[in-house]
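Treating backbone geometry as a discrete language has practical consequences that deserve illustration. No coordinates are needed to read the tokens, only the vocabulary itself. For completeness, the protein is quoted in full, as a sequence line and a line of structure tokens:
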Amino acid sequence: MRKKELYQKVIEYFQTAMPVAETELHYSNPFELLIAVILSAQCTDKRVNMITPPLFRDFPTPEALAATTPEIVFEYIRSVSYPNNKAKHLVGMAQMLVRDFQSTVPDTLEELIKLPGVGRKTANVIQSVVFNKAAMAVDTHVFRVSHRIGLVPRTCTTPLATEKQLVKYIPESLIPTAHHWLILHGRYVCTARAPKCESCGLNGICKESLKSSSGLSMTKN
């Protein structure tokens, strides 16, 4: 199957199976989402959603968060991964928002990655979710799923290479949604250790499933 045809079939499947696809992080404004995404690095959305309500309540603005200390923030986020570093990043991020961005979350990759704790993946999430830009954030789920399905070649060994390949073939208007399609598919169906291939709607299209069925057929013969 040609690459373009594969992408078309995968997109058609997700449009039918997952017409509504959005972040599972809880937030009510761009500043809260930025905090949540920073906290979600190597941590589950479920855990982040458990700890953010008190944090959002007590530090509702960049000014409030900028005025506190990493030691105080640590007490709110101690159950996430790498709480010491993330506490420092959150306070530093808020201070930079106040100092350099008039307390407003910026909307470009170049400005977002200047913020402490914000790398390309986090910046792309903010661009996609908040500003509906054609930015593809590649986390572990997106990386794994896109390789298994065959959307990207094995030579795409980095998140950036994977991102470039995906945005090359996915229509620009669908990129913000496609990001969530791949994440949610990886989170609940194409899981890392025990993918649910037998119940996956992409079975028969997915490169990994075709490889497995081919191997099984050869064994039977």
